[in-house]
Amino acid sequence: MNVSSQYSLNDILSAVREGKRTEAQALITYFIETEPDLKTDWSKVAALALRIGDIKLARQAADFFHQCCVKSAETDIHYAGLCAEIGDLNKALRVVSPYIARKVALPSVYHLAGTVQAQQGRLQEARLNLLQALALAPHLGISWYTLASIVDFNQHPGLLQKMEFAFSQLRADDQRNFQQFMYALAKAFNDLREYAKAWEFYKAGAQIMADISEYSVDNNTREINRLIAGFNNTSLQQLPQSRSAYNAGVAILGLPRSGTTLLGQMLCAHSKVKGAGEFNAIGVACMHLRDNNFTDFPSFIARHGHSVAALEHIANIYQQVAEQRYSGQGYIIDKSLNLNRHFGIWAQVMPLGKAIYISRNDEDTAWSCFKSNFRSQAGWSWSVSHIAAYIKNERRLLQHWQKLYANRILHIRYEDLVARPQEVLTRICQHLELQYEPAMLSFYKSSSPVFTSSIGQVHQPLHQGNIGLSQHYPDFVSQLAQANKAVGVGADIS
């Protein structure tokens, strides 16, 4: 950054950390609209723009990075990664494609291409590029894990042996890389129905992450308690509603791994839906709220100088973020990870918005969470006892929202969705005032990108094979039952 500049990159970072989105947005705009400085770290500017949900500014900053940086394979790969984070998957592939065409021996090129293609549902191309990455760098646990998530090891004999050999040569000092290998091996043995071996690798991999996790059951419980106490019939009756006419948002509520991604992809196949995903618009719109201002939002708004304007500010930011991610006419399906916690605010700022709550058998949900190598925001998922407590708290919160917003939330079960999809989807469409469309059953043909742990499943035709998978792991089920007793939960409270 030019020392004579009025502002610095740290000013943007401080504004983001303090929840001052408008200030951060203005500063990023200032840097972009002035003469681009070759010394500016535009990749960091792009990352900060993404944190405040401004795709347009992130794209401009990423492009400045590519224009100003010294050209090399490394900077091209970094630029392609920024494009992928922004959501420009085709552009990311265009950047790295020349290196693939020239068969350049850089594993990061093939890993990035394979990951992006997997997100797009181009699984055969993804498999070939990930295999090429591993041919160049067999020690890459993340490439093995990504590959394992999109292949059935029954259909690729010899692949497990290659992975086991690479694992045997691995140094354990890089614990995260080691853990990714373990989860990839576990997935392979699960495919091959060698469940005892799979369980040992899942346990070992989870323990690595549990040892470094700072997750606190007590802190999580306190937050849920404050949300339930803060949002009640009395406080909501005293709270004004936003006058925003925005009604394109549809919320999907539920625990991770309960079928939220599947449902989102099914709805995305409808002609009146323009997109579905975890775009965190409500989190960005509420980033200025801190502690009790978030959990006791009704009281905070009641004290605000102009409460309607405060609500409309949140509604407007939500709309801007959502429509930058998904342009055009139609519904936007929001299945962001933090939406359960934000739903009281979401419902208040979008009084016309509807929601679907999808639940699943708790044992299957818990097992699916334990075996999913979540990237972030899931420190609870590495411990059986933490999973049990987390499920209990999320169920309490979701049941609370159902009582408060009974007419706006439709509750469905994952097991019913996969057993009787047309019937359940028809109910959902009626709830959303849409006509059922048969194309919704062909969701797996969609090119809509998927960025969650369900990347392999949702690009397959609908099946019931994921029901009851937890029963292959009796030790896990037994530990979960004991943990449920400890936190006062039955086997299934959905």
Layout of secondary structure:
Blueprint: H1 9-17, H2 21-33, H3 42-51, H4 55-68, H5 73-86, H6 89-101, H7 107-120, H8 123-136, H9 141-150, H10 159-168, H11 175-191, H12 195-212, H13 217-230, H14 233-237, E1 249-253, H15 260-268, E2 273-277, H16 281-285, H17 292-295, H18 297-303, H19 307-325, E3 331-334, H20 339-349, E4 354-359, H21 362-370, H22 384-404, E5 409-413, H23 414-419, H24 421-432, H25 474-487
Parallel strand pairs: 1-3, 1-4, 2-3, 4-5
Helix pairs in contact: 1-2, 1-3, 2-4, 3-4, 3-5, 4-5, 5-6, 5-7, 6-7, 7-8, 7-9, 8-9, 9-11, 10-11, 11-12, 13-22, 20-22, 21-22, 22-25
Describe this structure in words.
By secondary structure, this protein is mainly alpha-helical. It has helices at 9-17, 21-33, 42-51, 55-68, 73-86, 89-101, 107-120, 123-136, 141-150, 159-168, 175-191, 195-212, 217-230, 233-237, 260-268, 281-285, 292-295, 297-303, 307-325, 339-349, 362-370, 384-404, 414-419, 421-432, 474-487; strands at 249-253, 273-277, 331-334, 354-359, 409-413. The radius of gyration is 23 Å and the shape is globular. The N and C termini lie far apart (53 Å).
The span between the termini is: 53 Å
Listing every helix as H and every strand as E from the N terminus to the C terminus, the arrangement reads: HHHHHHHHHHHHHHEHEHHHHEHEHHEHHH
Provide the structure class.
Answer: mainly alpha
For the biggest β-sheet, the strand order reads: 2-3-1-4-5
The whole-number mean of residue pLDDT values reads: 89
Instruction: Give the tally of β-strands.
Output: 5
Shape by Cα distribution: globular
Biggest pleated-sheet summary: 5 strands, parallel
Low-confidence stretches: 490-494
Number of helices: 25
What radius of gyration results from the CA coordinates? 23 Å
Amount of beta strand: 5-15%
Q: Helicity range of the residues?
A: 55-70%
